[in-house]
Please model this.
Amino acid sequence: MTDEAAETAGTETCPTCNTGLMSVADADLGDAMEVAIVLGNLQKCGTAKDIQDLLARDPASHADLTEPGNVACLLTGLRQAGAHQQAAVLLARDPAGHASISHPGATALLLASLREAGAGQQVAALLARDPAGQCELDDRGMVVTLAWCLHDTDADDQVTVLLSRLSAAGEWSLLDEIGEATGLPVPQQDQAGHRGGEGHARGEQQANPQAREERGPVGEQRAEHGDR
Model:
């Protein structure tokens, strides 16, 4: 270790991201988000030995699986660190079957991370739990994020479930937001305030899939989490 690295290791904040550093020994292995943050900081400011020491503690076997957003960040962090064996251990514990699916944004984050990991069986298991039918609808932005992610996963049946729930609840403006974000045709309100037929897809979004991907709500949510 260089003198500069040794000095960094003795400080309380990371000079790159100004977040608090935590020693490998202090990391709570049950907290998936905490491990993901420590791992990310070690990749920026630590040494290869620091990372190996953290992975040697087998965080994938100890992480709590109930918080889908936290598990998603850990899975992504492990893969980005090249810790593929730990990622496999985490997936083998069936996070899709244990994660809460009440929060639409966190569920979308887990779904996206499972897809990126090539965990097709876990994706199918998560979708089989009917996240569109079980999620809360009070966080509008996160509902849009889930709709986007389901659409991107080609889970058309789940998209239909979500749109039907929103239509039944009279959430017309939220349906319009989903239509704008995804380019999907969404139910429209008729003059009497009842559910009408499907609306038209937004031309720009469908005509330019690359632009759709770049502006995807899941990508924006990852930026808020600090994608490692």
User: Anything to note?
Assistant: The chain is about 65% helix and 5% strand. Strands lie at 187-189, 195-198. The longest helix spans residues 32-45.
